Task: structure prediction
Amino acid sequence: MKQQQQGSADNMQLLELNRILDLSSDIIAIVTPQGERRSVNKAAADLLGYTQQELIGGSIFDIVYEADREATKEAFFAVPTAKRKNGFENRILRRDGTQVSMVWDYVWDDQTSVIYAIGKDITEQKKQEEQLRNNEKHYQSLIKNLKIGVLKQEKDSRISVSNDAALEMLGLTEDQLLGKTSFDPDWNVIHSDGTDFPGSEHPVPVAIATQKPVRDVVMGVYRPKTKDRSWLLVNAEPQFDLAGEFDHVICTFTDITNERRSLVQKQEALIDILDNTEAFFATFDLNFRFTFMNRAMRKALGVHDTMDVNTISIADIPILDARYSQEERLKILLSEGSWSGSNRIQTHDGKEITIWLVLLMHRNESGIPTHISVSAIDISDSEALKEERNLNKIQTEFVNMVSHEFRTPLTIFRTSIELFQLYLQQLQITLPEKLGQRLEIMDKEIDRLINVIADLITIGKVNSGSLRVNKQEGSILTLIQQCIDRNHLTQQDNRVIRLTSRGTERNVMIDAFLMTHVMDNMISNVIKYSPGAPAPEIEVLFEKHHFEILVRDYGMGLTPADQEKVFTSFFRGTNAEHIPGTGLGLVIIKKFIDLHGGKLSLQSEPGKQTEFRIRLYY
Result:
């Protein structure tokens, strides 16, 4: 009777144990030391596709993937002695023959002399690990085949990964490169100006110290293999782990040796062109100290070739008829962007000469003044300074000569940029953002200078009398509408200028080429100087003996003082200093209207509107 009660109690305990085991999401099996399954929980049956009853009594090794059986037996049979085996991995077979990756904890129970096998399904984890390995292989393959150099550098700047492009650009083998740091004296790195580039200032150590990106650094690296120097454009990007802690730096670089050599050659070619022109040309810093002086200016100022121009300032050259101090002239350049006029100066060798010069203020992409350039000619021998008409002639000759002299280098620069961009496209190379922006700025600055030169040449033609008016009958409304449509297609402004007319429309006698230039400039101006305002308007009035073109905008307007100077060469409105322009557009418009025998006038109210009125006669 007692034995029956004990057996009943044991069964109750077993049922209770099984019920508890069935609540677990882990796979749990009770196994004899020989590997026979005494009990399995519901999670095991569900995973393997059997019923719990079907799994009781069989050997645990029967469902182990064949390639893993020997290792499984070795680990399992060691448990009674070792008492425990944690983290053992193998693969088991489901009823449908598919594999399940498992990680097991085998635990020996001294009281019941059985082994508890507790397992977790890690199939998805294994798949992810395999995917990561494949991704890593793909990543390594991609990095290896990139045309840009790539290095992975650890927290101490030690190089741990390199691709083939990096080895080629640096002229080193993988054995020579891996393990090196940025502080290795063998690098022999220099700045673009030839000065030493200490290891502590290299992009990677700086990125490690600041934990911020370092971009677009030019470095000249000596290559021991070829015994030459490669010029690299280097970027260093700090990388962080999931916890946000700094982990390593990815250093990328491109070889710009050929581009740098080409730019140096072009710079030398430009200097050669400037040195062989009759016009004087020089550049100053903002303290009016010379940074460059061409041969013609050296000769005119009596500066010997052996003298360092960087040691010479405008203050060292006496201006005998100075109307402005150096500080006043700088203020004019900062506010208006340019200055032109004549000065009588005393040269280094004691001579007195009179020169006509144009000063231009240059700014960087942020609008910050960087340097000043001057173009000039010697007008000492010209008695024409006494008469206004001859002065205009000299000015025109000067403008034409300087303009034509500068067209050649600008054309070289434009062609070089286009070839460089085509070269990058063919090689499928994407420039760093900052360098790309600089190329765009160079392109825009060349356009601006070409426009300035074109305007100067046009004014020169008008002043010299070589520009003739060729009037023919045509529709002024059609011409203006074509100019409006062309502007709308080429400008990034969605406002549409409205064209209206009053009176009886009729054909008029005009020079279509000159009037197209007038209207293109007018339309460009009213769009440019009225940002965010209602769309400008153009109205044509047909009267009995004349017609008028009214061009009206609702923008910034002009002060009374600015209205008096608006048709003066190089004048820029006081409220338009930061808007690109040459200060010649309205001058040309007025000259073209004068050539037609017409009249140009304006009315303006600051902050409200400006209206230009063109009157031409039939």
